[in-house]
Amino acid sequence: MTTSTIIASSAPKVQARKLIPEEQHEIDHELTLYPDRRAVGLEALKIVQKHQGWVSDESLLAVAQYLGMSAHELDGVATFFNLIFRQPVGRNVMLFCDSVSCYIMGCERIKDHISERLGIDYGETTADGEYTLLPVPCLGDCDRAPVMLMAGEQHRNLTTQKIDDLLQQVQQELPESK
Amino acid sequence: MTDQPLTKNIDMSRAPFDIEQYRQAEGYDAVLRMFKEMAPSDVLETVKNSGLKGRGGAGFPTGLKWSFVPAGDDAPKTKYLVVNADEMEPGTFKDRLLLEGDPHLLLEGMLIAAYTIQANTAYIFLRGEYLRAEKLLRAAIAQAHEQGLLGKNIQGSGFDLEIIVHTSAGRYICGEETALLNALEGKRATPRAKPPFPQVSGLWGKPTIVNNVETLCNLPGILRYGVDWYKGLGKGSDAGTKLCGVSGRVNNPGCWELALGTPIRELLEDKAGGMCAGYELRGFLPGGGSTDFLLPEHLDLTLDYDVIGKAGSRLATGTMIVLDDQTCPVGMVGNLMRFFSHESCGWCTPCRDGLPWIDEIFQRLERGDGRTEDLQILTEHVEYLGPGRTFCALAPGATAPLGSALRHFREDFDAHIHSGACPWRK
I need a labelling partner for B49 at 20 to 30 A (CA). Which of A150, A161, B159, B185 fits? Predict the structure, then answer.
């Protein structure tokens, strides 16, 4: 099976892109840790996502080719896992815990507040590409619920005020990062 | 000697012990002695005799689990140890404490387990969202390498061990050990048929032991202080201590190391500080989202696998989720059903199709469009998705809070249907 010509039916002619040296280097390191190339599939997708922000069809094909596996098989893995993004996401992905302890501690109200402030629901990205809001299963911080993971930082005991402060903070950091 | 072998080094207000501090606190003493004085079969006997049961949820005796791994000259040369650090059970936050609080304790436990089954490669299957734990574990592994506690011919024992951190990307089903193995092999994380059991044919078809983080963290103490000490820690029929957590509307939510056999009341009232002012206890899930509701009348039961089992629930992860009188029980269970429905891997039909149906009914109840026959359908699903009807334990786990809520909080379900709305949303 050739991996370069097949993929999602919506884009039949997609070609694999070239992996950047950093991606290749990091994937090569992972390959030393497993006895089988395809075992690295998920780690390789995470590496690509770290560098590109998400996993495009072009990236998926590139990884599949590199690991010598079928693109369909790799896409089966990519779409199975919650944290592999097959669509572009915002610069700040809000992984909002909506599981049981957070529910009891009132996370629905916090989520409504985020949606109202940013104008996005679960699975959506703000028009300026700044935020994506995603529900995430229990973040294992239930004694400090409600919680959310954003940009590698766990935010605990969330209140609407804390959300406002956090959004303001990101807003202030924006000019520096650009 | 200590009566808190899991948490004696843990103070979350500072960084965890590095290898020097850990060794000053008697860390790695147990493995050094093990390499000098014990054959793998001696360690296996010790762990069997200790009465240690798996702390991931199922409570299966650890020594017995290990004993199924082929040993001796005819056994396959390649074997694997895999740590299940994919903590994702709703309401469970105990392994995070160990991973972030004392990573060397886990590595020491892994050395003991790997030596016992003679595995030279060990993978830590870590939850992708546990970013701090990942950083700390990688640092601890590097330190252990530098000091010759990992790698080739460890401390002149002739035993080799490499520990590899694998970070996942968020799927609850990976906590099921055979699904976890498929995920590690780079496949979709669907469970495998058993037999063959992983102990005989696991990762890449090799003998494999999958143990939970907390289970492995029990091992250094058992080897260091002995079986009698370990058994003496438990106040009831079970040996050792257990990490127990409380979340919900309590004054001091948190996670503590308690002797097995401690009354639940002590956990809820002394440790967690009792219910918040203005809130009454209606019930609780004793060990995460896959356990049956217990009621205030059960508070004097002890934290023992058998005791809680006889009361119709499970100790499981030991992390209690408290339902108060101002939280809608139907909403709470509906939240759990949404979770289980979303996290079904889709492999077997009852789970893939049954859970979304249950989820849909709960949404209907929440909207006020519930029908009387819905409760009959839910009750039937408790049976259809129960133990033995599905490929793995995910759906049976979902039926635990569902079935018990239908029994204990029936009037709340009825109220949703009869008043045409959720009474808590007024």
Answer: B159
In A, minimum Cα distance to B184 occurs at: A39
Q: Both B31 and B175 in a single domain?
A: yes
C-beta neighbour count of B137 within 10 angstroms = 24
Do residues B181 and B264 both lie within one domain? no
Choose the closest CB to A83 out of B128, B166, B189: B128
Which residue, among A84, A100, A153, would best test binding to B if mutated, counting the most B CBs under 10 Å from its CB? Answer: A100
Query: Which residue, among B389, B289, B377, B294, has the nearest Cα to B334 in the 3D structure?
Result: B289
Q: Which residues of B touch A63 (CB under 8 A)?
A: none
What is the distance in angstroms between the Cα of B183 and the nearest Cα belonging to chain A? Answer: 8
Question: Is B286 within a domain?
Answer: yes
Task: For residue A176, give how far its alpha carbon lies from the nearest alpha carbon of chain B (Å).
Answer: 25
**Chain B residues inside the 8 Å CB shell of A43:** 166-167
CB–CB of A103 and B331 under 8 A? yes
Q: Is residue B125 part of a domain?
A: yes
Split into its structural domains, chain B has a count of 3
Name all domains of chain A by residue range, CATH numbers in brackets. Answer: 1-88 (1.10.10.1590), 92-177 (3.40.30.10)
- Nearest residue to B230 via CA among B219, B214, B245: B219
Residues B152 and B277 in one domain: no
- Residue B288 belongs to domain spanning: 236-324
Q: Classify residue B4: in a domain, yes or no.
A: no
Instruction: Find, in chain A, the residue whose alpha carbon is nearest to that of B346.
Output: A80
End position of a domain, from candidates B296, B324, B352: B324
How many C-beta atoms surround the C-beta of residue B89 within 10 A? 28
Cα of B234 to nearest chain A Cα, Å: 25
Q: Walk along chain B (426 residues) and give the pLDDT tens digit of each residue.
A: 899 999 999 999 999 999 999 999 999 999 999 999 999 999 999 999 999 999 998 889 999 999 999 998 899 999 999 999 999 999 999 999 999 999 999 999 999 999 999 999 999 999 999 999 999 999 999 999 999 999 999 999 999 999 999 999 999 999 999 999 999 999 999 999 999 999 999 999 999 999 999 999 999 999 999 999 999 999 989 999 999 999 999 999 999 999 999 999 999 999 999 999 999 999 999 999 999 999 999 999 999 999 999 999 999 999 999 999 999 999 999 999 999 999 999 999 999 999 999 999 999 999 999 999 999 999 999 999 999 999 999 999 999 999 999 999 999 999 999 999 999 886
- What residues in B contact A81, CB-CB < 8 Å? 168-171, 189
Domain boundary residue, one of B268, B296, B324: B324
Give domain status of residue B5, yes or no: no
b vs e for B52-73, b when ≥16 Cβ sit within 10 Å of the residue's Cβ? Answer: bbbbbbebeebbebbbebebee
Whether residue B180 sits in one domain with residue B131: yes
